[in-house]
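User: I'll paste a sequence; please echo it back and then give the predicted structure.

Assistant: Echoing your sequence first, then the prediction.
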Amino acid sequence: MREPLIPVVPMSHTAHIRSHRKPRRSASKLAMRAGVAGGVLSTLAVAGASGAANAAEPVTQTVELPTLTADLSAQVAQSADATEQTAADYQLRAERDAAAEKAAEEAKQDLAVAKKKAEAKKKAEAEAKRQAAADRASRSSDRTTLSASADVSAPASGSVATVISFLKAQVGDAYVMGGTGPNSWDCSGLVQAAFRQAGVDLPRVSGAQSTAGTQVSLSNVQVGDILYWGSAGSAYHVGVYIGNGQYLDAANPSKGVVIQDLSGYPATGAVRVL
């Protein structure tokens, strides 16, 4: 008996290729991950054609490359720009903080210097006030001593009385620069004329008259002593002490020859001729 014949199905011309030996495959989908920095999904489409039950058709595979490459580049660029901007902001902030710290330090130093200057000024003002008070007290003491002792120690000499009498007779006369009388005088001209009445020949000018006799302190001044203002030898004004803290002089064009208090215009020194 013959064995039954088995039908022979013709093999596809691509069946001998390994990758094509996929009989009776229905249409399917394959997923494939692809992309850069975070993974961009791509789809692998596999298309298969249905055929006869006993035939295997070749399968075509298509791989779609990433399509977001341009967008991703833009994102990377934007990220880089943002990073650079952030760094610049940090740098600017750091520079501002450093500048603010420097300014605060300089302001602190300036404040310290100003405070020291203010303290120094305050001390200087206090010292000036103290010195002024001491000077006033000293002058007041000198004037008190002068007033108390002048008449007590006044000599009984008739020559002094002659000088004082002549001077008082000229009160009310005019002051004229270079005047030597009889009705107008300057300060040294009047003093020279007064002492001439007592037989004393004095120099003509104030500076020379301030050294014509014996220097005496203002605390020991006596009636008839010549008072001077300025330095001895270069005095700019002279008068004669008449007692009771007063002196007589040819003062100036507005006053003329007058009697004045030493408290209003303290003399610098005194010289005794008689």
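Confidence is low (pLDDT under 50) at residues 25-57, 142-156. Residues 68-150 form one domain.
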